[in-house]
Design brief:
mainly alpha; transmembrane helix; globular; 74% helix; 341 residues; potassium:proton antiporter activity
């Protein structure tokens, strides 16, 4: 979906760096290990249930690919409530940071597992290649984002006599360019725009005039708001026009499309998938939270506090699925695309 890079770029641009990096180790723990564990658990459970005849039978690669896409969390409503209640910034930014990086990790895992679809025999060297490919894509994507973040900062710092329109246009161009370059290089454009947005917020924006900063920030938020509307409230008329104006993608029918689905709906698969998501979320949240608390206890860290049992419950409850998962399902290989959607 062409709306996704716009949403992720805004997330990176609006992120509060101090709280994010203060909880970076916890965020990486839940985002990387947690997403991988969730993908494997969901995929493994669905494959087992399918082989037992209790659900739709799909090959292992398809199950793992579905597990990867459905492991992308989007706790927008939960975070909105957190902001109203002024909860502990630690809990807020662990959930927020996990959801941000989790989207990128899910996309990379989905692309990695999708490469095995249609392969009859998976050898050990193929698995090793997949692991190296995953690491290479992550590192390369981060490098592309950091590169464009640095280039944009230097360009806007040394280019003189720019008009207001030129400043804002260049800023928005540099925000979207990492996605295009990363996709051409077969990397993750989502990861690239995330890190580019983070650097541009704290370095590039300081080289803009105050008026250009305000305009660029407002444009970012308007585009993000419209993209969320496109993803969540899409119908077949008005939103189609909006999508054409914003991106070149087809209409994304999240929510209302369920009621217009004529074929491909498997109720047992849907119910088992929901249960698998709940189980997988619990399987990775509680053990990783215990590991985090044990490491803090051993290291006697004073900069971070332990996650209480209630906070662990909140992290588990915040694993809602959203736009990224639905958008990935639209590119799921046939013949199981409609089922996974």
């Amino acid at each position: 979906c062409g709306c996704i890079p716009n949403l992720v770029a805004v997330v990176g641009y609006t992120m509060k760096r101090r709280h994010f990096f203060a909880n970076l180790s916890s965020i990486l723990l839940f985002a990387i290990l947690g997403t991988f564990a969730s993908s494997v658990v969901v995929g493994g459970l669905l494959y087992f249930l399918g082989s037992m005849g209790l659900s739709l039978q799909m090959p292992l690669a398809e199950c793992l690919a579905f597990g990867a896409l459905i492991s992308s969390t989007d706790p927008v409503s939960t975070l909105a409530v957190f902001q109203q209640l002024n909860v502990d910034p630690k809990l807020f930014y662990i959930i927020f940071g996990e959801s941000v990086l989790n989207d990128a990790i899910s996309i990379v895992l989905f692309n990695t597992f999708s490469k095995f679809i249609g392969v009859n025999v998976i050898h050990a060297h193929a698995i090793s290649y997949a692991v190296l490919d995953f690491v290479g894509v992550c590192v390369g994507s981060i490098f592309v984002g950091v590169f464009f973040g640095c280039v944009s900062s230097l360009a806007l710092k040394h280019l003189k006599h720019l008009t207001l329109m030129h400043e804002v246009s260049l800023f928005l161009l540099f925000a979207y360019m990492p996605f295009l370059v990363a996709e051409v290089l077969e990397l993750s454009g989502i990861v690239s725009v995330l890190f580019a947005g983070m650097l541009m917020k704290h370095y590039t924006s300081n080289n803009l005039s105050p008026t250009a900063q305000d305009i660029a920030s407002n444009v970012f938020h308007v585009v993000a708001f419209v993209c969320e509307l496109v993803v969540f409230l899409s119908t077949h008329s008005i939103v189609t026009l909006a999508v054409c104006l914003i991106s070149t993608t087809a209409t994304v029918d999240l929510g209302l499309s369920f009621f217009t689905m004529e074929r491909g709906l498997s109720v047992p698969f849907m119910l088992w998938a929901i249960l698998a998501c709940l189980v997988a979320r619990a399987v990775h949240v509680y053990p990783l939270a215990m590991l985090r608390n044990a490491c803090l206890r051993r290291g006697r860290s004073h900069s971070q506090s332990r996650l209480s049992r209630n906070e662990q419950h909140m992290i588990w409850f915040s694993g809602l699925r959203g736009a990224i998962a639905f958008s990935l399902s639209l590119s799921f290989p046939l013949p199981f695309r409609e089922v996974c959607t």
